[in-house]
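fyi for ur records
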Amino acid sequence: MYNYNRYTHRQRFHFKFILVGDYLDKGPQLSEIIRFLYKNKEHFVFVKGNHENFVNTYLNGKRGSYESNKDLIEGYFNSIYVLEKVPELKEMFFKLFENSYDFVFTSKFIVTHSPCKPEYLGKTDKKSISEQRNFVYPKRRQFVSDEEHFAAKCEAFDFLNTEHNFNGYHIFGHVVTKNVFVDKKRIGIDTGCADGGKLSCVMFLQDKEDYIISSYPSFKSKFENLNA
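which gave:
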């Protein structure tokens, strides 16, 4: 059974937006994003992304020194530089993170940051929480040829061909696709807005079983090779 505890969020009130995570490190307007979310936090329910989780852990001194994390910070988590320089912004982020959830569970759907294998979905042990937040998949640069990369991706994503262990929909981000991914009651909504793709959402209306998907083009001029 699913465990309704501090890791979950019941639909006991009307909320407008659930963010699937990774609002950090996705563009140059970090300050504006955090200030906007903080100012309007009563309108949002936040799911912890792997970016928010890493930054929070590092800034709280639980990931070791800068030198031991240098490659990760310089390559993926540059929001740390901004947050360390602006204490007010860092405190806003801490408060947002404190009021975030590892996943959101309602009668119609479950929202996790990343796709995950069925055996982890909706569970609260340490391994399951990690799997629901950070799915590592093969990147093109790791392989000599497109064929090898494609085969590795097929193997990594094979679990998407199986049914998940929840009667409702599983909604997630983290893995970028050109269009919203929908299959076997799984909905992947990360369509790469920060890299020139689209900002996508799925909407469930009260007392309605069906859903609506909407996507809005990025201000960037072209869709880059997001899966490289």
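Residues 1-13, 222-228 have pLDDT under 50 and may be disordered. thats all i got for now
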